[in-house]
């Protein structure tokens, strides 16, 4: 009976819940541009991000911009909570000799983020697979559960984890850069805030936005290959026999430019989404810590 109050009173519980709030904020803020990114990467749409948004809304209706959002939204609390909790735990473990009142070193934050990215890849791979299939009109009249069942029926349980290896390759370094960039940027914008946790909302938004952009800069070509591998179905006209084969065939057919196709809309989305994620995350932590302090003082 006392599990939840005790869990939410612990640092683990606070990090976990705050990470979940951050994930929800990020999904809602940036999903339409994520749909644009996936269609650009898979060569289903050409033109600027704005023209693609207008085209999708005009031809398929505004709700088409949010097709497939159910899968990540239903699981994003857990997914994002895993990332933030893993990073916090690993960063602290790497700097176990430091006082809890002293923030982890930047190196430990980067390594903790790298480990967190690898861990969350096992959670995010099936989610992104279903999302991509829906965004590309795969069974567009069905929901996430129907698409997941169809994948298991036609490709087996292994099919749900199509793209796991390249997701790990994408997320491990990018999350290391992500968390390092955020910690570095917010300290530069608001010196001393890593220790006091009293940065302004403006600092949270801009530091989070820059962290999102930095993380995509280091992994975008890998993400293009990942999208194409996960978009592939047993009935796809083009068959990719692994990561290297997908890279070669994509470049041979569409040129080197295919590796940065959709990058502009992705960077724009990354700033918006990650500004929202870190603002919601830090705000939730403040509320949880303040509530905990008030309870302790009353007792």
From TrEMBL:
InterPro entries listed in its UniProt record: MCP, MCP_dom_sf, MCP_transmembrane, Mitochondrial_Carrier
Entry's localization field: Mitochondrion membrane
Family matches, as Pfam families: Mito_carr
Gene3D superfamilies: Mitochondrial carrier domain (1.50.40.10)
Topology in membrane: Multi-pass membrane protein
Single GO molecular function: transmembrane transporter activity
Solcar repeat segments: 10-93, 104-188, 199-287
Principal cellular location given in the protein's record: mitochondrion
GO cellular component, one term: mitochondrial membrane
Superkingdom in the source lineage: Eukaryota
SUPFAM superfamilies given in the database record: Mitochondrial carrier
Keywords noted in UniProt: Membrane, Mitochondrion, Repeat, Transmembrane, Transmembrane helix, Transport
Family affiliation: Belongs to the mitochondrial carrier (TC 2.A.29) family.
Protein name: Mitochondrial arginine transporter BAC2
Organism name: Lactuca virosa
Source taxonomy: Eukaryota, Viridiplantae, Streptophyta, Embryophyta, Tracheophyta
